[in-house]
What we know:
32% of the residues lie in helices and 33% in strands. It is α+β, with helices and mostly antiparallel strands.
Amino acid sequence: xxxxxxxxxxEFRRAFGxxxxxxxxxxxxxxxxxxxxxxLLQSPPADYRxxxxxxxxxxxxxxxxxxxxxxxxxxxxxxxxxxxVPAHRRRGVGSALLHAVRAQARDEGRSALLGExxxxxxxxxxxxxxxxxxxxxxxxxxxxxxxxxxxxxxxxAQADAxxxxxxDYELISWPGACPEEYLTEYCGLLSxxxxxVPLDDLEMQPKRWSPERLRAAEEHxxxxxxxxxxxxxVAADGRLAGYTELTGSPQQPGRLNQRDxxxxxxxxxxxxxxALKLAxxxxxxxxxxxxxxxxxxxxxxxxxxIAVNDHLGFRPIEHQHVWHSPA
Length: 327
């Protein structure tokens, strides 16, 4: 068995197939499609680059690791998605891959690794967690993965029921790029997310958004065919009090992603989190009605947002743990 770097398209597809087969062991696999991953490998956005390692035995790919290298904030990190074909587990394949990942990280001046494991809701942590803990990783963040069947019924009635709590705010939705009039304020909200969202013991440098950075990200999503809806709450003074975002892609027609939802601390207590999500669902459903499953993740310690999701009908399906280790 040898561990090799992979950058040629056909070999990458073989290696990524291992990660896809591992992800398929979960009830709701959330790994991106291989074509989308290949685009990221060959034409990455400005904030990240990607690489891949494969374990090969007798010309068969039996393990793989997809590495994400932050290029702006958190340049001390490498994010690792590692998987081994079930028939070849407990033979040292994963350990050999991890050894190669650590060596590459150190060679490129990175000091820490991040990885994630998943376990069914209510179940004990699985073999991935045991693998991580035995190799020096420490769990620093726990999230709850919830799903909701789309389209969602009774949205107008639910929105009417909470409207009296936020009458001093206007809810504005848009389907694509942020309108110019909200650009600076919206970047401010995006920059606040990493400071306000609970991260448990995970220490991450918050991402700072400028108009130029946002426009570049929007253009990258546009070229990939991504679609979605964003809704903001505009306070009486014209400032943005909060936002929420839903996204989807043609590569995964049955899946939608509930992205970040944030309400500024000084505007909490008006049920804006729920109102934003309801309005955003209404906006998306006005243009897109194909059946899908909405996925969302929240820190298990973030009881208020999980309560909002429960109110909307989301159900919990699995636990996610993020693990940290020195390189």
